[in-house]
Amino acid sequence: MTLQQRRKKPKNNMLLDNINNPADIRKLSIEQLTTLAGEIRQRMVEVVSKTGGHLASSLGAVELIITLHYCLDTPRDKIIFDVGHQTYAHKILTGRNKDFDTLRQYGGISGFPSHIESEYDCFTTGHSSTAISLALGLACARDLKSPEERFKVVAVVGDGSLSGGLAFEGLNNTGHLNKDILVILNTNELSIAPNVGALSVYLNKIISLPVYNRFHTSLENFVKSRVPKGSRLLKLASKFEEGLKGLFIPGMLFEELGFRYFGPLDGHNLALLTHTLKNILQIPGPRLLHIVTKKGQGYEHAENEPVRFHGTPPFEIETGAPKSRPGVDTALTYTAIFGKKLIELAQNDKRIVAITAAMPEGTGLDKFAAAYPDRLFDVGIAEEHAVCFAAGLAKDGLKPIVAVYSTFLQRAYDEIMECVALQKLPVIFAIDRAGIVGEDGVTHQGVFDIAYLRSIPNLVMMAPKDGVELEKMLEFAMSADMPAAIRYPKEKVQSIEYPGQSKKIELGKAEVLKTGKDIAIVALGCMVLPSLGAAEILEKEGISVTVVNARFVRPLDIDLLRTLKAKFIFTVEDGVAEGGFGSAVQEALGEHIHRLGLPLQFIAHGKRDILLEKYGLTSQGIAKSIKDA
Ligand SMILES: Cc1ncc(C[n+]2csc(CCOP(=O)(O)OP(=O)(O)O)c2C)c(N)n1
Hints:
Blueprint: H1 3-8, H2 22-25, H3 30-51, H4 55-60, H5 62-71, E1 78-81, H6 88-96, H7 131-145, E2 153-158, H8 165-177, E3 182-187, H9 198-207, H10 210-226, H11 232-244, H12 252-256, E4 260-266, H13 270-282, E5 287-292, H14 300-304, H15 334-348, E6 352-356, H16 366-371, E7 376-378, H17 383-395, E8 399-405, H18 406-409, H19 413-421, E9 428-432, H20 449-453, E10 460-462, H21 467-480, E11 484-487, E12 511-514, E13 519-523, H22 528-540, E14 545-549, E15 552-554, H23 558-563, E16 568-576, H24 581-589, E17 594-598, H25 608-614, H26 619-628
Parallel strand pairs: 1-2, 2-3, 3-5, 4-5, 6-7, 6-8, 8-9, 9-11, 10-11, 13-14, 13-16, 16-17
Antiparallel strand pairs: 10-15, 12-14
Bound molecules: thiamine diphosphate.
Residues 57, 60, 83, 85-86, 126-128, 158-161, 188, 190-192, 295, 357-359, 381, 383, 408, 411 line the site of thiamine diphosphate.
């Protein structure tokens, strides 16, 4: 029965209604588990169609998650999901079904695992490739502290996340330490976009050769079960197996890293999964179970368009079409303007190349890829590599632009410092999703970039107030021959026209948008527009305001700042105020500056406008803070 047909059935006697925690599913038969999987999918589709969210990956992992909770003694046994965007079934089965309608909403449950939300979520996660290292740490702590506890530790990793170097650091160390952990590798041939890289070719090769694999595991089991330990036959069999390693043996890479490899298995076959997992859990040492799933499984529109349904806005269930949001859908985003402008610049300069770490759509580089397939490098979920790779490209005369979300650039801090800034190489960082991102929450807010990039020598840092300025900043960065970062938000652009404003970007030059005598607001990037709004509110109350569009975080326009005649100076930024842009102004002027920005906290999920309002970064909020100060 398709999900659409199932929706038409009345909702009585749902198995799901009686599942309050994983212990409840351990009483069910395999047939009932299959029914439960359908009900979970239905629940997910209904909720995500209203809230938006990571649907395709979560649909693909339903049977895996049921199997894990069925075979493990959770929460005593630990499951760590890599990234954590595939965990909706886990949330539904671990007591959060009743709150599932609030998914990703302000005050509701998070779209990612959250250690604050549930004892079943060991860690709060959202960035990829961390699960194996986290699992190994837990296993080592278990063995050192209380070996008698023997709880089990399972890391669930997707094939996309395995392209991150950190995942290999975890595998390498696990093989060396020989700890009891199970890694479940969930392959679906997709990251967000189709998977890239030699490793993904290798995994696909395994998937397409199941016969070899069955032969390999069955030979070993067959001999072991029939001959005594130490017998000649066993030695011969193992020699034979060694000999086979010269051929293509599925999973050999993992075996050589010290893991027992099992699979590939159909990740939607509950009978097979539960049977296999129960057996594998009995075996000590590092193990890797390889399963194959379909992204979007069970909801035909997500199966057909897994990239669109990776992270989807609200949609119509019957057609899969996004729910129309008048006004919002027609406006251009910063991301779209960036993508379009880069194509235009690349037309006239063949040295321009673009790099993404597995996010061509999200960063707006998908269109660039279509226009210049040879000049777009999707390096996999590997931000550190992306930055070093860009440094190499720049060293030999190209003009690389790394388009990346603010939160994920955190991972490449050292590479920006050492490989780019220290060498003064002209790599450009197009930092998307800077500031509040909204529903993805704590792990995804791009609020730290100003503070962490401001301390890197030789790096120019800019933020445009609108779309036109983003284009101008890109042109400037391309001609500047120095490392440069441009940060912009997850937002639709509004154009800001002020008489006398200068369209030209000059290194370290701010612009004064309006002049008043009482106070001055020095605003950065997308905070310029609300600051102009705040100035209007204040002027109605008789306070005359200067508004400066800072444009540069580094170098700061100190000369202009020194000429400000106002009695009070306020800075406004959509990043953490401590160590951020306002701090830079304060350091430069050596005076007391009122810094408006975000608190030094991990900011939870909720709509972007709700969060901006909460933290006083709207016109009204800025005006109020100024009056209060
Ligand atoms: C460090 C980092 N970079 C980028 C992302 C964005 N991201 C979230 S999920 C995802 C794809 C993960 O692919 P895979 O592990 O294969 O899981 P699937 O969605 O296919 O189930 C990416 C690139 C991230 N979460 N972390």
